[in-house]
Task: inverse folding
């Protein structure tokens, strides 16, 4: 999955696969997580947010099944 660089202290990059509704986040620590069943609108809102950490915590972190892939 292609990820796009993010300017954030918490995240390095994020990507989205619309064919299977999977969002992938690379944390600043290097850990990579996939969140399953994420609507495209949620990913788009995250990417456009000026407060990515807050949006991630409120709308993604505990709302979708997470798989750590790296």
Result:
């Amino acid at each position: 999955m292609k990820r796009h660089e993010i300017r954030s202290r918490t995240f390095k990059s994020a990507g989205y696969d619309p064919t299977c509704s999977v969002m992938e986040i690379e944390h600043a620590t290097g850990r990579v997580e996939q969140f399953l069943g994420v609507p495209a609108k949620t990913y788009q809102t995250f990417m456009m947010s000026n407060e990515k950490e807050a949006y991630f915590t409120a709308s993604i972190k505990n709302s979708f099944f997470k798989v750590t892939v790296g």
In short: The chain has a mean pLDDT of 96.
